[in-house]
Amino acid sequence: MSKNICLVLSLFSFINLSANSFTEYKEHIAKDRVLLIFDKNVSVDRKAEIIQSSGLVTAFAHLPSPSLTICFTNNFDAAKKFFSSVSEVNFVSFFITDGNNHFAGVLNQFLVKLKDKNFEPLLKEKLKQQYLGEAIPDKYIPNLYKISISKFLVSNTVELCAEFLNEGWCDYATPNYLLNPLVSSDPLYNREWNINNTGSTLQGHGTVDADMDVDSAWTMTTGDPNIKVGVIDSGVDTLHEDLIQNILPGHDAISDSTDGYPTPAFPEDGHGTCCSGIIAAVKDNLKGCVGVAPSCKIIPVRSFYYMNIQGNILPYSTSDAFSNAIGWAWSDAGADILSNSWGLPPNLIGFLPGGTQPVTDAIVTAHTNGRGGKGIAMFFSSGNDNDSIGPIWPASLNETIAVNATNMCDKRKSPGDCSGENWGGDFAGNLDFSTPGVKITTTDMTGAYGFSSGLYTYTFNGTSAACPNAAAVGALLLSLQPTLRAEDVRNIISQSCDKVGYSYDSTFSNGTWCRELGYGRVNAYQALMRSLSYNGINEAKENTVLNIFPNPANGILNIYFGGKKSGLIKIYSIAGAELLKQELNEGVNVAGVSSLPSGVYLVRTDTESGIVTKKVTIIRQ
User: Fold this and answer.
1) CATH number, residue 460
2) Of 73, 65, 102, 17, nearest to 257 (Cα)?
3) Are residues 226 and 172 in the same domain?
4) 597 with 458, same domain?
5) How far apart are CA 413 and CA 406, in angstroms?
6) What is the side-by-side strand order in the sheet with 89-93?
7) Does residue 420 sit in the same domain as residue 550?
8) What is the tens place of the pLDDT at every residue in 254-291?
9) Is there a single domain that holds both residue 166 and residue 249?
10) Is residue 507 part of a domain?
11) Burial (Cβ within 10 Å: 0-12, 13-18, ≥19) of residue 583
12) Which of 73, 99, 348, 507 is 20 to 30 A from 569 (CA-CA)?
């Protein structure tokens, strides 16, 4: 899965947080690596000299932010003891692992949240007593403080956090973890099956209409320039020819140096640019592709970067960086939607003492306070491990929207499916819905870096691709109905999904649901139509059924309608012009379409039960 890029960070499940995690973590310390933080004045050459002199390190890598070194060793205890004795090393630490190649490093920083601001003097006094650093208040989360540890005053941040937890005034305490995530595209419009699937060779011989009906949605809106989508990712090529018109000022949550632009060194650095193109590549500019919400704006927020570690190109970040990225996006930049193609594998989550509760706090705060109290709809990738235990964190949180990937045949992306790619989206659990996530045509990095040698890629994939597809539909909704709350966005999209591919044998608050796709495959047009009659009540109104066959059709359409008898069947062009109209009867209706040329049309049933619209393709033999 070279580009199955759901960013998988190794974090903690806060539902199962207990004091035991502060002792049991020792059973999960990785014995093949140590984490070093050198004095800031030590040169790169001197670092290498010290490491090589140990005779205990088989390989090492320097990370720029936070500035640290990862040393790989065959003798963990001896290596830790050696580096602890070196005067130029300020901190020696360890990694926690789940045994499945997921790791989280324990840094020389920790985060403490007070139960009340009035306890701040007690926090400062405790820090003074232990000769610890200054408590820096978080800008976005009330009563949260970050503390950096001076040289060797503390040898183990986990144990320090356990001590703080014993204080009655402390809500939680957690190390700031180094996160090692696993992360795995107008002239190109005829390739964009997520927008309009014709089943063509260029689109992978998929199923006609196995798309999100975006072209139909555009008859209502292509987006509002006032609607801003924050892309929390590797950064965005802000000068890309097909994005520059829709790019707003960005932010670097890692080192505060790039204003949201990537630090290009590897193909994977194009990840955020690919996600952004899916959302808002410019329409009708005679360049490249077009996004799902091409008139909306992108806020690039760099929240992770890539490094080559032992021949593997891996992304790195910290829990603090993700918390900052989310906080800045909603509070400072005023984002309306957040697209997050990253997440955390569940196996390692339970092993991290204290976890990364600040990230959860940042998500909850954005969901509650964003957009003047209406909340931010935050879309997250469900994961790419073909796992049936449900979406990874934070897609699994109640405040987020979990998005799985479909293939061009309207099925869950799974190994051995029609796409020919050997990976699968994580499903079941509290999955919300699904969108196209394989062989997506989108923008890529300008220049030497990115997934392709040109400005565009045709094969962006993973639930990382599905997430921005869904986020862009959320942006279209707010463009049409800007007063919607975050939960309204979730409800409307869920209630208007197409029930494709599987048996929807469960019923929840937003209608029928299946474990593979959630409420179904997203339909942008139906979501916009649903928003026109949405009353804010979290319930699906599925009192009509509309089936059309065959589809594609030639001279005759069979239309099955179950519901109220009185009403009309109307056929429209994709531009909205009414072409045919006839009375609607319960049961099978036959519509003659022999006068219509080959193309895509909208079939609409209009009754007292409501309006239902579906897309049909007519092909002349």
Assistant:
1) 3.40.50.200
2) 65
3) no
4) no
5) 5
6) 57-63, 68-73, 33-38, 89-93
7) no
8) 998 899 999 888 888 999 999 999 999 999 999 999 99
9) no
10) no
11) exposed
12) 507
In a domain, 510, yes or no: no
Asked whether residue 189 is assigned to any structural domain, the reply reads no
Q: How far apart are CA 161 and CA 138, in angstroms?
A: 18
d(CA 588, CA 559) in angstroms, rounded, equals 6
Length of the chain: 621
> What residue type is 544 in one-letter code?
T
Token pair 């704006």 in the structure block, residue: 297
Q: Are residues 252 and 304 in the same domain?
A: yes
Rg (CA), the chain: 26
- The domain that holds 602 is classified in CATH as 2.60.40.1930
DSSP state, 281? P
Binning pLDDT at 50, 70 and 90, where does residue 181 land?
A: low
H helix count then E strand count, the chain: 13, 31
Cα separation, 149 vs 153, in Å, equals 7
* CA–CA gap between residue 493 and residue 473 (Å, rounded): 8
Nearest 5°: CA angle at 341, between 221 and 352? 145
Classify residue 38: in a domain, yes or no.
yes
> Tokens 């429209």 identify what position?
572
Cβ atoms of residues 610 and 544 within 8 Å: yes
Residues 297 and 379 in one domain: yes
Q: How far apart are the first and last CA of the chain?
A: 39
Question: How many structural domains comprise the chain?
Answer: 3
For residue range 5-41, what is the model confidence (pLDDT) as tens digits? 444 433 322 223 333 456 788 889 999 999 999 998 9
Q: 314 pLDDT band (50/70/90 cuts)?
A: confident
> Which one of 116, 149, 179 terminates a domain?
179
3-state secondary structure 469-528: HHHHHHHHHHHHCCCCCHHHHHHHHHHCCECCCCCCCEEECCEEEECCCECCECCHHHHH
Res 226 pLDDT > 80: yes
Report the amino acid identity of residue 198. Answer: T
**DSSP codes of every residue in 376-405:** -EEEEE--SB--TT-PPBTTTSTTSEEEEE
User: Phi and psi dihedrals of 128, rounded to 5?
Assistant: -65, -45
pLDDT at 14: 28
Residue 437 in contact with residue 410, Cβ under 8 Å?
no
Residue 154 structure tokens: 């503390």
Domain boundary among 436, 462, 486: 486
Q: Residue 377: is its pLDDT beyond 60?
A: yes
Could you report the per-residue pLDDT of 563-594, keeping only the tens digit for each?
555 677 888 776 567 788 888 776 666 777 77
What sign results for the dihedral spanned by CA atoms 527, 529, 535, 540?
Answer: negative
Q: What are the backbone angles phi and psi of residue 349, rounded to the nearest 5°?
A: -55, -50
Is the pLDDT assigned to residue 382 strictly greater than 70? yes
Q: How many CB atoms lie within 10 A of CB 78?
A: 13
Q: Which residues contact 166 (CB under 8 A, 6 or more apart)?
A: none
Residue 579 is part of which domain span? 545-618
Tell me the CB-side half-sphere exposure of residue 452, using CA atoms within 13 A.
16
Instruction: Look at residue 542 and tell me whether its pLDDT is greater than 60.
Output: no
* Average pLDDT of the residues in 423-437: 95
Cβ atoms of residues 563 and 607 within 8 Å:
yes
* Residue keyed to tokens 């804010």: 536
Let me know whether 161 and 226 are in one domain.
no
**Angle made by CA atoms 217, 441, 285, in degrees to the nearest 5:** 65
Are residues 369 and 258 located together in one domain of the fold?
Answer: yes
**DSSP secondary structure string for all residues of 519-584:** T-B--HHHHHHHHHH--S-S------EEEEESSSBSSEEEEEEES-S-EEEEEEETTS-EEEEEE-
| HEC-encoded secondary structure of 304-318 | CEEEEECCEEEEEEE
